[in-house]
Specification:
about 250 residues, 5 strands, about 40% helix, elongated
Length: about 250
């Protein structure tokens, strides 16, 4: 007990620090292990998002306009930003369709031949209720939604060409800048009765920028995307056929 009038001072080291005496007893098992001392995680600065071409491509026209000072010290990226703005503005100025329009033979010149020079036109000669024509119509309806800058029209075959044989249906006529680029007769080039929108797009893109990727980019990127989707559909169809075969084996 401390004498009256005197104060007792207890010295403590930093939290978690132990004396040599305590360390010896802990090694002998006389004391409990020292509690672990909490330490904050080492500071890690947040990774800054890479501002490269992919980052610029992800921005719309308004965002790119607001980034005027972002690349003041990077001439290459500033030129690329300006290029993307021009591309988006050009795409916005293009005519947009988004569906397959029915026209009459008397409208062919005004609607197809005299279409704006920047517009790619797909003409579907068809017959109502005819199976192959119906299959092509379904594919073109989907492509018209996916590629609204391409003009898709359909016309009853005999209204366009008198006595046009049903055996040639469906027929696609491809136009650009007032010129007929190609006639494609029947479903054969598209896969026959297994025709899909992806396969139709692949064939169309062999003759021009009819089904562009991202509204303005065509070519290998577009074809790769369509091919990937086509392969997926073929795999699903094969799996379905195998399931049906297994089911028929059990029925036997």
């Amino acid at each position: 007990m401390a004498a009256e009038g005197y104060m007792t001072t207890v010295y403590k080291g930093p939290e978690g620090e132990s004396t040599q005496w305590q360390d010896i007893h802990r090694k002998l098992g006389n004391f409990k292990p020292a509690p672990s001392v909490w330490k904050p995680d080492a500071y890690k600065p947040e990774e800054e998002e890479a501002k490269d071409k992919n980052w610029v491509d992800s921005k719309d026209g308004k965002d790119l306009s607001d980034l005027e000072d972002e690349f003041a010290d990077d001439r290459f990226m500033e030129e690329y930003r300006q290029k993307r703005i021009r591309e988006l503005q050009d795409a916005a100025r293009r005519p947009r369709f988004g569906s397959v329009e029915e026209i009459r033979g008397s409208e062919f010149v005004s609607q197809v031949t005299n279409a704006p020079p920047e517009v790619w036109v797909v003409v579907h000669l068809y017959k109502e209720g005819y199976g192959p024509s119906t299959l092509m119509s379904q594919a073109l309806d989907q492509l018209a939604v996916q590629h609204p800058t391409t003009k898709f029209v359909k016309i009853i075959s005999t209204d366009c060409i008198p006595r046009y044989p049903d055996t040639n249906l469906p027929t696609l006529v491809l136009y650009h800048e007032g010129t007929c680029l190609q006639h494609i007769v029947g479903l054969g080039p598209f896969g026959g009765p297994k025709t899909t929108p992806e396969q139709v797009a692949l064939v169309l893109n062999k003759h021009g920028n009819f089904c562009p990727a991202g509204e303005e980019e065509a070519g290998e990127v577009s074809q790769a995307a369509h091919l990937k989707s086509l392969v997926g559909r073929m795999v699903e169809r094969r799996e379905e056929e195998e399931r049906q075969d297994e089911s028929s084996d059990f029925d036997d």
